[in-house]
From TrEMBL:
The lineage of its organism: Bacteria, Bacillati, Actinomycetota, Actinomycetes, Pseudonocardiales. It holds the Pfam family Hemerythrin. Gene3D superfamilies: Electron Transport, Fmn-binding Protein, Chain A, nmb1532 protein domain like. This is Deazaflavin-dependent oxidoreductase, nitroreductase family. Belongs to the F420H(2)-dependent quinone reductase family. It comes from Amycolatopsis rubida.
Length: 293
């Protein structure tokens, strides 16, 4: 399809609120606007459209050609897209299912539109199926929940730093509560905080991050960076745990403990900010927040 012919079809599609005449009459279609993988420019393409399990779905069939279409390479690099279908326009995150999820989805695609099975029979290339997760359709999403979890960790870390300040500065609080009591409180608090943060990061490393990296290839480098940050934070936690476990009032150095907590706070905040910038949108698009008790 030439660029001129495609542009005319897209213009007609928009003028008729998602409908075309002629040989395309009655076809379910959508305009997908992507960002060029190499150019960074907006690219529009008219595609066959399916709705499966409440999400829009498009298929990178290229009529059974042996090479992926250009728009598919674009969404692998830039998963944020604009979708126009049925007279509606919205932003979406374009996910690429793999493995068993792909097999199940492709079977659903072929059941709805058998022609895609014919295209697959023409090529040895595994024809990708792309799920378009609408960003604005949900209420509270998993990404929003993640930010709330981060806020809890931030508050707990602030409280730990205040306890370390009390020990290091000999403040009025330390005069009300003797140093041995403060040290015990901090040891208990630190144990709970470190255990919770480790479990949180373990869940991300084992479940959340692999799923995101698989669905959104463009996020893989950022996710690898986040996993590396988890290791840095874990090493700092180990050092602080050793200081807290061995803290002897009147003998140990509370200033060193406070300095290590400041280092941890800086690393954790940088990690949280980067994580919120890179994965919250994808999490909100693909999963609702877990139920609260």
């Amino acid at each position: 399809m030439s660029d001129v012919f495609s542009s005319r079809l897209i213009a007609e599609f928009r003028a008729n609120r998602g409908a075309l005449g002629g040989r395309f009459e009655g076809w379910p279609l959508a305009v997908l606007t992507t960002t060029g993988a190499r150019t960074g420019l907006r690219r529009e393409v008219l595609l066959g459209w399916l709705e499966i399990e409440g999400n829009g779905v498009v298929v990178a069939s290229a009529n059974g050609a042996d090479r992926h279409p250009a728009w598919y390479h674009n969404i692998r690099r830039h998963p944020m897209v604009t979708v126009e279908a049925g007279g509606d326009a919205y932003q979406a995150m374009a996910a690429i299912p793999r493995g068993a999820a792909y097999e199940r989805l492709f079977a659903q695609v072929v059941a709805k539109a058998p022609g895609y099975g014919d295209y697959q029979a023409k090529t040895t290339r595994e024809i990708p199926v792309v799920v378009l997760h609408r960003i604005d359709k949900r209420g509270k999403g998993m990404g929003d929940w993640l930010v709330e979890v981060h806020q809890w960790f931030r508050a707990e870390l602030r409280a730990l730093r205040e306890q370390a300040d009390d020990l290091a500065d000999g403040s009025a609080t330390a005069l009300v509560r003797p140093e041995p009591d403060l040290a015990h409180e901090m040891r208990t608090h630190c144990l709970g905080f470190c255990t919770a943060l480790r479990r949180h990061h373990l869940g991300e490393d084992s479940v959340v991050f692999p799923s995101l990296a698989e669905q959104f290839p463009a996020l893989a480098p950022a996710i690898a960076q986040l996993a590396g940050q988890h290791q840095v934070v874990a090493r700092l936690q180990d050092a602080i745990r050793q200081l807290v476990d061995g803290f002897v009032p009147g003998e140990s150095d509370p200033v060193r403990l406070r300095a290590e907590l400041e280092r941890l706070a800086g690393e954790v905040e940088a990690h949280f900010e980067f994580e919120e910038q890179t994965v919250v949108t994808a999490l909100n698009a693909t999963a609702a927040a877990p139920p609260t008790a």
